[in-house]
Amino acid sequence: MSRITLDQAQAIVAAALKEGRALGLKPLSVAVLDAGGHLVAFAREDNSSNLRPQIATAKASGALALGVSSRVIGEMAIERPTFINAAAGLNADGIVPAAGGVLIRDSAGLVIGAVGVTGDLSDNDEKAALAGIAASGLAS
Amino acid sequence: MSRITLDQAQAIVAAALKEGRALGLKPLSVAVLDAGGHLVAFAREDNSSNLRPQIATAKASGALALGVSSRVIGEMAIERPTFINAAAGLNADGIVPAAGGVLIRDSAGLVIGAVGVTGDLSDNDEKAALAGIAASGLAS
Amino acid sequence: MSRITLDQAQAIVAAALKEGRALGLKPLSVAVLDAGGHLVAFAREDNSSNLRPQIATAKASGALALGVSSRVIGEMAIERPTFINAAAGLNADGIVPAAGGVLIRDSAGLVIGAVGVTGDLSDNDEKAALAGIAASGLAS
Amino acid sequence: MSRITLDQAQAIVAAALKEGRALGLKPLSVAVLDAGGHLVAFAREDNSSNLRPQIATAKASGALALGVSSRVIGEMAIERPTFINAAAGLNADGIVPAAGGVLIRDSAGLVIGAVGVTGDLSDNDEKAALAGIAASGLAS
């Protein structure tokens, strides 16, 4: 089983931002965390608002915390809002219950990290995240 | 009134995990706290997500905080979400309003601790918790 | 590169506690964390004080935070107390600058986790930690 | 007055890491913050310990918090440790009183951000930080 490298993380960031430009999205922020939830690479496009680093990180960290994408966490938040509030309070980097946080898996299917994207509509954030992972050769 | 021992706590953990395997559950995490809410024993099965230690602990701690199982707290959270959010903010280890946290009682019926299980659906977490307590000879 | 398993973590805990009994130490608490700093196994012996779970965890978490044993962090704390105070404030699980927290390495020498022991004098806590790792077949 | 751009921030990160390799340093982490203290770019080299993102960020954030390099803050910490401890507690991202955090200035001499480097000895962290800024065409 592998560990995500800085090269892989930076490839994910670059490809996610490139997808954002291709789709004409608002300025994006992209965070890539390792399996333990620790930041490996991050980029925030010009003219982004101030909380984007924390939101991108929380989307990724939440996915690693609960073992599902932040889109799924968003669905859980509709059915069980108090549970998701509680979980967010327990996670050091918080949890953001909206699409854009996607687990990163190696070729064996084991989780080696997560990417979190924020800046546009959640669905678009997630598109950028998935494009980032695809370009890196890793799986989601 | 007795105090829960490490031997009893480890027996609860082992039996809860064994029940999980018998039921074919996802990887479980089991925390046993003493009457004061302090961790006595904990185990997290391989391939669990990152927040499981805190969730297992919060299920048990919440039960001790409010004097009812975390299943009951989950029901309270539907009727009175603001109260449960507030209580979770007050408790150092948080409160998770979902089944899986069960009070442990001695033969006199006095609370001597709590077990918290997480990893599968809440109903199944609670089954593992109850199996753990039953195997230890203590009551719930 | 490998990930620490629950079996390995529980072996470390058991062997550390056994060493404590062999040396006639005060009641010990032993925490084993994975490479990301997340708790895998924990045990607190009977008649331990309340903060032992957090102290054991912080010794191990601090070692993973800075990449050195908590004994070395204790030495750093003498030379650069403000730096260690600052680092402790930045780490979600804190840092305890005293011996007893030891990094766990796989056969390739890569860090796969850490063990933290507390309960007796720091030097003795560290002896128990090292005995725990040795018995598990892993390296330190 | 200009604002630091993502391109400039990424140039600083890349050049700082390149300097680290040229000097044979341990794995580095580099954070670039804008004038408001918000993360713009970050990279953590492989085999770094877990707290490096927070330490790099705190070195840069502290420089922006007090208006001096973190080397100077380290000197202040020797003379006035209680003040620096207090300041660190007030700053959301903390303050690390060791060299490696350097203010970034535009051609008019106005502060537009800060870089924070960690991973090796503080003096070497600062060399990498200064090399990063120099390569970006900005001033320090």
Strand order of the largest sheet of chain A: 2-1-4-3
Rounded radius of gyration of chain A (Å)? 14 Å
Stated plainly, the CATH topology of chain A is called Beta-Lactamase
Q: What's the count of strands of chain A?
A: 4
Assigned CATH superfamily of chain A: Haem-degrading domain
Broad structural category of chain A: alpha+beta
Structurally, the number of domains of chain A stands at 1
* CATH class wording of chain A: Alpha Beta
Shape of chain A: globular
> Portion of residues in helices of chain A?
40-55%
> Quick one: which chains have the greatest interface?
A-B, 17 and 21 residues
Major sheet description of chain A: 4 strands, antiparallel
Oligomer: homotetramer
What is the number of helical segments of chain A per DSSP (H or I, 4+ residues)? 5
Pfam family, one (chains A, B, C, D): HbpS-like
Protein name (chains A, B, C, D): Heme-binding protein
Topology:
4 copies of one chain form a homotetramer.
Chain A: H1 6-22, E1 29-34, E2 39-44, H2 52-66, H3 70-79, H4 81-90, E3 101-105, E4 111-118, H5 122-136
Antiparallel strand pairs in A: 1-2, 1-4, 3-4
Tell me about this structure.
Chains A, B, C, D: InterPro entries: GlcG_carb_metab_protein, PduO/GlcC-like, PduO/GlcC-like_sf. The structure is a homotetramer of 140-residue chains. In chain A, a hairpin with a 5-residue loop joins strand 3 and strand 4 (111-118). Chain A is built from five helices and four strands; from the N terminus they run H-E-E-H-H-H-E-E-H. A four-stranded antiparallel beta sheet of chain A has the order 2-1-4-3. Chain A has one domain (6-136): Haem-degrading domain (Beta-Lactamase, 2-Layer Sandwich), CATH 3.30.450. Helices cover 48% and strands 18% of the residues of chain A. Chain A binds chain B through residues 36-37, 64-67, 80-83, 85-87, 89-91, 110, and chain B through 47-51, 54-55, 58, 74, 77-78, 81, 84-85, 88-89, 94-98. Strand 2 (39-44) of chain B pairs antiparallel with strand 2 of chain C.
